Structure formats: C-alpha cells, structure tokens
Amino acid sequence: MNVRALEMWQHISKAISFAGKSVIDLGCGYGDLLSYAKGAGAWHYIGIDKDVSQATPGIPVVNRDIAYWCKTTDEKYDVGICTSVLPYIEERHVVLSWLASHCKEVIIEVQLYGDGPGLPEHTSTLAVLVWLKKYFDSVQGIGYTTPEGRSHRALWHCKGVSHGSDIA
Ligand SMILES: C[S@@+](CC[C@H](N)C(=O)[O-])C[C@H]1O[C@@H](n2cnc3c(N)ncnc32)[C@H](O)[C@@H]1O
After folding, report:
1. Of all protein residues, whose CA lies closest to atom 26 belonging to ligand 1?
2. 168 lies in some domain
C-alpha cells in the first residue's frame, strides 16, 4: 500500500460517494484507491497501469500505457482517478481530455515542481489549478496529502468539460 493512500482516501471519500458507481484509476499503482472504492460500494472498478506486478489481489488492473488507453477506449465512467501520475506522461493533454469527456467526476493529484517529479511549470498550487481549468468546468481543491516528508500536494475534484480555447 502506498503511504499516501489512506490520507488521499479520507479527502476523496468526503467529496464523492462511490456507492453504485463505476471507477477507473489511470496509473493506479497498487490499486489502493480502487480497493477503498470497492469497499465503499463501487459496482465496477478497474485500474490501468504499465506495471501490473504491484496490483492488489482482487483489483483488476489492465497492463497498458495510459495515453494509449485513452486514445483507443470510449468507455464512460462515473469516477476517474489520476493521482501522482501526470508528470510521468508525455501526452498529458490526451489523458486530461479523455478524463474530462469520459468521466462524470475526476480526482487528480499532481506533484509540484521540486516535490517529486513535477513539471517545471507547476511551481505552485495555483499554477496547477489554472492548468486543470483548461480541461474542466469546475475544479475544487478537496485537501492535501503530506507524507514522505514532502510539502503539500493538492487533491482536485474536477467536473465537466471546459470549452476554453487555450487547451494545449
Ligand atoms: C507514483 S505512482 C502513483 C500510483 C498511484 N496512482 C498513487 O497515487 O499511489 C505512478 C504510477 O504510474 C504508472 N505509470 C507511469 N507512466 C505510465 C504510463 N505511461 N502508462 C501506464 N502507467 C504509467 C507507474 O507504473 C506507477 O504505478
């Protein structure tokens, strides 16, 4: 289990009800958040990760590149999750566009620059907010995760497709 998993879940479960919902976690790692979602009543849960060796038993994880998944899959989900993954993905635009258009609600956590492998432009929580607003109509901070001796990393609850003209 990831050391941040419980702290993330405490924030996420206050913001979203999982009962009867379908959930996808892009870059799920161990699948900790899907295990919690399952326990909270999600009826369908699936993870996508390029490394399935770390998956928790009982949590289905598809061995796939995330950007490839987004380009080739038109399935819709109630909840999409993508935590501590986006800086590793080159085609972040593809992934964020897919989440915005295929999931009713999305939880995102992004490392800040210098606080793990963050993107150079993400030097502050505000910079991440401005970035996410290009993709989603509504972006709300729901809490921070703090373990591993790092500074605060915001968790964002996002909804709706933004039709802003400056997506890149
Ligand atoms: C830092 S871990 C985060 C795991 C989990 N989301 C969490 O918050 O604990 C990053 C995860 O993204 C996966 N990953 C990175 N790049 C990927 C890609 N292009 N396609 C699929 N999975 C990827 C890694 O295998 C790893 O499990």
Report:
1. 29
2. no
